[in-house]
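Researcher: Good morning. I'm working through a list of sequences from a screen, and I'd like to move beyond sequence-only analysis. For each chain I'm collecting a predicted structure so we can compare shapes side by side. This is the next one on the list. No need for commentary yet; just the structure.
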Amino acid sequence: MDRGPIFRVWLPLAVGLFAVGEIFQSGPGPRGLARWIGLLLTLIGLAGVILSRYTLGRSFSIVPKATALVTTGIYSRIRNPIYISGMIFIAGAVLMIGRPEGFVVLLIIIPLQIIRARREAAVLEAKFGDAYCEYRKRTWF
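Model: Good morning. C-alpha cells for this chain:
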C-alpha cells in the first residue's frame, strides 16, 4: 500500500484545516469582514498547496530536482502554484489575525520565492530543454 498520499496530501490537509479553524475561532484579532476574507484566502491558499502537492506526486522535492516535467492539473496554468498558494495563505492569515505588519513577511518572502522559482526553472530547462521552454510560454509564473 502506497502511504505517500497520506503524508503528502491528506495529513497536511487535515492539520491545515484544523489550524485554520482554530485560528479563526479563537485566535487573536478583531472579528468582522476582514477576518472572514482572511478565512476565505487561507482556505484558498491551503487548497492550492494541497492540490499542487497532489498533482506533483512523487516529483515534489524541497531542493530543485528534475524527476519529471509535470504539466497537468493546476500546473497546466501556473508553473509554481505552491508558491502562489502559499502567498495567498499567508495574506489570508495576516488578515484573519488582524496584524497588518504581517504583510512585511510577504514583502520578504515574495522576492525569495521568485529567486527560488528561477533556480528551479534553470534546473528544469537544463533537463527538459525545449519541452520546458514551450511549457513556460503557455503558463504563468
